[in-house]
Automatic annotation (TrEMBL):
SUPFAM superfamilies: Ferritin-like. Its cofactor is heme b. This is Bacterioferritin. Gene3D superfamilies: 1.20.1260.10. Keywords: Iron, Iron storage, Metal-binding. It comes from Streptomyces tsukubensis. Residues 165-184 are annotated as: Disordered. PROSITE patterns: FERRITIN_LIKE. One of its GO terms (biological process) is intracellular iron ion homeostasis. Residues 166-184 have a biased composition (Basic and acidic residues). One of its GO terms (cellular component) is cytosol. Fe cation binds at E46, H82, E129, E161, H164.
């Protein structure tokens, strides 16, 4: 059986002395202020994605819009769950989740989109998913073993963002390119 690197009495003593730090112990190896900043940027990204998917859900029209709109609505709900997970982690780490609407789009990695063409909506959602995938992959790698809990949060989000990108790609493949009407 492996031995602890630090004896248990020392660990207990530190836990009592720094009780106000909550889950942040001496073993925490990441740059906490930077982690909180990144978490808030990701929170902004997820909120912008919720808003974009909701916009697309309500404005999707045309012959192929019903199943596509249903996918938009499902993704909006999942992106909201992502935002909630990020906000919870920010609070766990002693930070404050930033929901300020005045700065959401500046902090977001993804962009908002107000397309009215169904194909353009899907393409913009796919681009946003690809941006999230690239960002969250880099973040997870950067966190490494310094903050394994936050890394796992990003890995969970990453897996679902990859599913979303695959869904959007599948929708693009199913809609005929020569569909009738400008907003079909």
């Amino acid at each position: 059986m492996a031995e602890f690197l630090t004896d248990i009495e020392t660990i207990r003593d530190r836990a009592r002395k720094e009780i106000e730090k909550g889950p942040i112990t001496e073993a925490y190896g990441a740059d906490l202020p930077r982690v909180l900043q990144i978490l808030n940027e990701a929170l902004a990204t997820e909120i912008v994605c919720v808003l974009r998917y909701k916009r697309h859900y309500y404005t999707a029209t045309g012959l192929y819009s019903e199943p596509v709109a249903a996918e938009f609505l499902e993704h909006a709900g999942e992106e909201q769950e992502h935002a909630d997970k990020l906000a919870e982690r920010i609070v766990q780490l002693g930070g404050e989740p930033d929901f300020n609407p005045d700065t959401l789009t500046r902090r977001s990695h993804a962009q908002y989109d107000a397309s009215l063409d169904l194909i353009e909506m899907i393409k913009e959602d796919l681009v946003a998913e690809r941006v999230a995938i690239a960002s969250y992959t880099e973040i997870a790698k950067w966190l490494g073993s310094g903050d394994p809990t936050t890394r796992r949060v990003f890995e969970e989000l990453l897996a679902q963002e990859e599913e979303h990108a695959d869904d959007m790609r599948g929708l693009l493949e199913r809609i005929p390119k020569d569909r009738p009407g400008p907003a079909a």
